Amino acid sequence: MARIYTLEGHDQLNQALDILRDEEIIMGVTIIRGIAGFGKNREVHTSSLLDLSLELPLIIEFYDEPDKVEKAIQTLKSRVDFKHIITWSATAHIDSTA
């Protein structure tokens, strides 16, 4: 499993999706849009009606075999300016009858 933390309003999302879908052929990707968040600089990004910011937090989460996840991360890091990527091991419990 891998998670990339970024902000909305940058071209990074579409570029990352293209890489993960078309080049690295990753098994599954989900984009999670936050309603509020802050990072190291402590600046709060929120979705209030008064502040129609296009810099809401985004999480790009994807999974596949460990070697494919690592290769995808290396490709993303070489072509997209992502600074916050985390990974962890996970076990897929796939229902073969579905």
Spatial extent as radius of gyration: 15 Å
Shape: globular
Which fold name is given in CATH as the topology?
Alpha-Beta Plaits
Share of helical residues: 25-40%
What would you say this structure looks like, in words?
The chain has helices at residues 12-23, 66-79; strands at 2-7, 28-33, 36-38, 44-46, 57-63, 84-87. By secondary structure, the chain is of the alpha+beta class. The chain has a single domain, classed as 2-Layer Sandwich (Alpha-Beta Plaits). The radius of gyration is 15 Å and the shape is globular. The relative contact order is 0.30.
Tell me the layout of helices and strands.
Layout: E1 2-7, H1 12-23, E2 28-33, E3 36-38, E4 44-46, E5 57-63, H2 66-79, E6 84-87
Antiparallel strand pairs: 1-5, 1-6, 2-5, 3-4
Name the descriptors.
single chain; 98 residues; alpha+beta; Alpha-Beta Plaits; two-stranded antiparallel ribbon; 2 helices; 6 strands
Please sum up the structure shown:
This protein has 98 residues and is of the alpha+beta class. It has helices at 12-23, 66-79; strands spanning 2-7, 28-33, 36-38, 44-46, 57-63, 84-87. Strands 2-5-1-6 form a four-stranded antiparallel β-sheet, covered by helices on one side. Strands 3-4 form a two-stranded antiparallel ribbon.
